[in-house]
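Action item from last week, closing it out:
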Amino acid sequence: MSSRLIGVGVGPGDPELVTVKGVNALRDADVVVVPVMDTGERGRAEATVLHYVGAEKIVRVVFALNERTDRGRREAAWDAAGERVAELLKAHSAVAFATIGDPNVYSTFTYLAHTIGELVPGTVIETVPGITAMQDLAARSGAVLTEGTEPLTLVPVTAGSAVLKDALGGPGTVVAYKFGRQAQAVVEALRETGRLHDAVWGSALGLPEESIQAADALDGGPLPYLSTLIAPAPRDGGRGGKL
């Protein structure tokens, strides 16, 4: 029998936002892998998982989550993490990997699954979808993500603020992830495209340090790395105007 590696989305931080299917996958797995930085601090995924399974079932595996410039170091960390998970798959029939948000949206699980496919051929790889930060921020702020025929564009600002500005020039809602270090450039892009007034940002959603503010209140100072921004599509306020 082939072992199974299940990527489980555990949401943006609020433990109440893990799906029933996600909780069952975590509890049914033999072990639950959680990614940690090389500093060893507890991340959001681990904190969320601990609400549903005991610490004895959790295996902490170091990933270069905070490495953005040294590709060699980053890939060496992926390889080491893949080898550790490969060992677990040889010893257990079901290994879950907990990831914040959704395992198919900008997730470390993507790189792990690719590595395992090479190290342990025949492993069955599955994913359990999770609630994303943009969905949670929309719910908490009252921002509507899409109406009618509006497109939705998701941009990681680690790709540069120019990509965000191009998206803001379009007709639909734009969501920006990971923009904390480029907050000033994001505010400027919103202002230049006339999208500042209705935009909203949030961080640490569902956690004690949660912050949700209108984007026009931002002063351009640095924000938490995992900040999320929603710039709703321009709307005239009429019901069904985008149908």
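Closing note: Strands lie at 4-9, 31-36, 58-62, 94-99, 124-128, 152-156, 173-177, 200-203, 211-214, 228-231.
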